[in-house]
Amino acid sequence: MCAGLLALCPVVAHGSLAFSFASPGPGHQLSNVANGGGAGVGLLSYNTTQAISLIVDGTSEAIGTTTFTNARLEMTNLHLGSAQTVNGITTAPVSGSFAFYDFTGNTRVNILLATVPNGSYVRIGNTNAILFSSSQGLVYTAGPRLQTILGTAGPMTNPQEAVFTLTDILVNGGAPLTNGAGVFNSFNANASYSGNSALAPAPGSIALMGLAGLIFTKRRRA
Questions:
Q1: 207 occurs within a structural domain
Q2: 155 class by beta-carbon count within 10 Å (0-12 exposed, 13-18 middle, 19+ buried)
Q3: Residue of 113, 116, 152, 112 whose CA lies nearest to 134
Q4: What is the pLDDT of residues 92-129, one digit of tens each?
Q5: Do the Cβ atoms of 77 and 37 come closer than 8 Å?
């Protein structure tokens, strides 16, 4: 019996989910409004009229891959602070939240929500990205659409990551990306996204592991 239970124990290992969408193009969907979040603070937003194809990959958890072809991305109070450049690398703080939702039938149903109290805009040369991780406070929450996909799989847990890659940045009026004080000027850009989250063991799997361990301990004592 113990051997049989232990044979099932691999299901207790942390699984993972991956999320992604490619820049839908044409046009520029991500925008920054200079001083939109206060003096010296930019306000980032994404065009919610633009449909994106959000991929939820749960193949490592045997829940397959789901693509939401009529998804939307909403950025809420996503603030872009002043930048500083050290050794050719420009960084700036980013904080706020964002959400992916299904808009099929013109009805919003949340897929994935994220709060991001601390993150970083990073620019190296002409390469730009916005980075978030659970070690800096990123928290993903599953909306109804994602909860349906997860089913009986364990809840999302750390580590969690999110990366927005920005390309073809166009600064209003042809100005530099930041002014002399490091404040970002208004700009538009294309953006793609990738993220991931670990999945905690389902409660039934934890109980199974505990039972197997208890039986194994008793057998050793015997």
A1: no
A2: middle
A3: 116
A4: 999 999 999 999 999 999 999 999 999 999 999 999 99
A5: yes
Average pLDDT score over residue span 65-70 = 98
Q: What is the pLDDT of residues 1-58, one digit of tens each?
A: 434 433 433 434 457 999 999 999 888 999 999 999 999 999 999 999 999 999 999 9
**Whether the Cβ atoms of residue 30 and residue 188 lie closer than 8 Å to each other:** yes
Question: What is the per-residue DSSP string for 10-35?
Answer: GGGS-EEEEEEE----SS--EEEETT
Q: Is residue 221 part of a domain?
A: no
Domain ranges, residue 176: 16-198
Whether 210 maps to a domain, the answer reads: no
* Domain tally, the chain: 1
Q: Is the pTM value of this prediction over 0.90?
A: no
Asked if the structure places residue 120 within a domain, the reply is yes
